[in-house]
Structures are given as C-alpha cells and as structure tokens.
UniProtKB/TrEMBL annotation:
<dbReference type="GO" id="GO:0097367">
    <property type="term" value="F:carbohydrate derivative binding"/>
</dbReference>
<keyword id="KW-0862">Zinc</keyword>
<comment type="similarity">
    <text>Belongs to the SIS family. GmhA subfamily.</text>
</comment>
<dbReference type="InterPro" id="IPR001347">
    <property type="entry name" value="SIS_dom"/>
</dbReference>
<feature type="binding site">
    <location>
        <position position="68"/>
    </location>
    <ligand>
        <name>substrate</name>
    </ligand>
</feature>
<feature type="binding site">
    <location>
        <begin position="55"/>
        <end position="57"/>
    </location>
    <ligand>
        <name>substrate</name>
    </ligand>
</feature>
<dbReference type="Pfam" id="PF13580">
    <property type="entry name" value="SIS_2"/>
</dbReference>
<feature type="binding site">
    <location>
        <position position="128"/>
    </location>
    <ligand>
        <name>substrate</name>
    </ligand>
</feature>
<feature type="binding site">
    <location>
        <position position="68"/>
    </location>
    <ligand>
        <name>Zn(2+)</name>
    </ligand>
</feature>
<dbReference type="InterPro" id="IPR004515">
    <property type="entry name" value="Phosphoheptose_Isoase"/>
</dbReference>
<dbReference type="GO" id="GO:0008270">
    <property type="term" value="F:zinc ion binding"/>
</dbReference>
<comment type="subunit">
    <text>Homotetramer.</text>
</comment>
<dbReference type="InterPro" id="IPR050099">
    <property type="entry name" value="SIS_GmhA/DiaA_subfam"/>
</dbReference>
<comment type="pathway">
    <text>Carbohydrate biosynthesis; D-glycero-D-manno-heptose 7-phosphate biosynthesis; D-glycero-alpha-D-manno-heptose 7-phosphate and D-glycero-beta-D-manno-heptose 7-phosphate from sedoheptulose 7-phosphate: step 1/1.</text>
</comment>
<keyword id="KW-0963">Cytoplasm</keyword>
<feature type="binding site">
    <location>
        <begin position="123"/>
        <end position="125"/>
    </location>
    <ligand>
        <name>substrate</name>
    </ligand>
</feature>
<protein>
    <recommendedName>
        <fullName>Phosphoheptose isomerase</fullName>
        <ecNumber>5.3.1.28</ecNumber>
    </recommendedName>
</protein>
Length: 199
C-alpha cells in the first residue's frame, strides 16, 4: 500500500492542534498541581514515600515519574523514595490470580504503604476499578492521596476519593496522558527544587 504522505502530515497537523488545545485548556491545573507538589514534598521531607499506579500507558507514566524521584530528573540530588506498583510481575500475577485484578494495587498499598506516605493514581477515565480500590485502601491506611485523571474524572472525582484530583479537560485518552506526563514532570521539577542544594 502506497502511503499518502500529504494526508498523513495533514492528520498529524490536526492531532498537533488538538494537543495544543488540550494543553491550553489545562492551564487551570497548574495551581492544583503546585498544591499537589507541596503535599508530595511534605511527605518526602517527613520521611514518607510516594507510591504510583495506573494501567497501560498510565503504568508507564507511573514508572517514569517514580524513577525520576528515585534516580534523577534534572538536577543532582539525593535519591528519594518512590515506588511504581506496576513493575513486580510476581505481585501482579499473584494478586490477579488469587484476589482479582481489582486488588492488584490495593493489596500492595496495604502491604507497602504507611501512614504519611502518598499514593498517586493515574487513570485517564477515572473508572479503572484497581486504581479506585488503591485510593480507597490508601485512605484507609492513612496515606495522602492524589489522582491524575481526565474526561469527567469518573467515580474517583465524583466520590472525592483523592485529596488532590487533577482532571484533564479532554475526552481523548492519548491527549489526557500527554498532559499527565507534563504534570508529572512539573511535580519532579518542584521536588528537584526542594531537595537540591544550591550555593
Ligand atoms: O495508553 C493507552 C492509550 O493511549 C492504553 O494503553 C491505556 O492506557 C489503557 O487502555 C488503559 O487500560 C486505560 O485505563 P484508564 O486510563 O482508563 O485507567
Ligand atoms: Zn521524564
């Protein structure tokens, strides 16, 4: 099949414009993200840790952001405690097999989360049952909670299941994810700022 480069470029241009429009509409999330960053920094300063979870592309985002806390974002600073609950195939398969997929993150929150930690759930729809269950488990365990979501925020926003709920104003999963990783990078920048010694 011969590809029509002009048509493909036109489609890319349409998607690019849509991406810009979603970012433009997301400006209102900057102040709430600053509030989330402040809360996350307080958790880390008090010796707590950050837990991240999500499905599919959001699982990748959870790992991406957690690694920028533990290893490095932009500056040279000490490693900070953060865990993505999406990476341990033994835990994920055993929890799915024995408890049900809904429990894969909640069980790890129960086992690893401590009062004073923070759970950050990522779900573009706000309706992923395993992220919802993790937020409920986190609250029950005395963790602070945050959710990066989209569309109408689903039951997580409606039920106020997270202390910080950032709802990206888009219906399109990919665009919501694009804003999520930007907000994750803002969080990492604020963490770098708080933990980097400057002369
Ligand atoms: O990355 C994408 C689509 O861009 C997909 O892998 C997507 O993350 C998956 O369909 C997820 O299962 C969607 O879950 P959620 O964002 O609604 O919680
Ligand atoms: Zn990054």
């Amino acid at each position: 099949m011969k590809s029509d480069r002009a048509a493909v470029t036109a489609e890319f241009t349409r998607r690019y414009q849509e991406h810009l429009a979603v970012f433009e509409r997301s400006q209102g999330l900057l102040a709430p993200t600053a509030a989330l960053a402040e809360a996350a920094i307080s958790v880390l300063e008090a010796g707590g840790k950050l837990l991240f979870c999500g499905n599919g592309g959001s699982a990748a985002d959870a790992q991406h952001i957690a690694t920028e806390c533990t290893i490095r974002f932009e500056t040279t600073r000490k490693g900070l405690p953060a865990i993505a609950l999406t990476t341990d195939s033994s835990a994920l398969t055993a929890a799915s097999n024995d408890l049900g997929y809904e429990q894969v993150f909640a069980r790890q929150v129960e086992a690893l989360g401590r009062p004073g930690d923070m759970l950050v759930g990522l779900t573009t729809s706000g309706t992923s049952a395993n992220v919802t269950a993790a937020l409920v488990a986190a609250r029950a365990g005395g963790l602070a909670t945050a959710c990066l979501t989209g569309r109408d925020g689903g039951e997580i926003a409606a039920g106020r299941l997270a202390d910080h709920c950032l709802v990206v104003p888009s219906q399109i999963t990919a665009h919501i994810q694009e804003v999520h990783i930007f907000l994750g990078h803002l969080l990492c920048a604020a963490i770098d700022d708080a933990f980097t010694d400057r002369e």
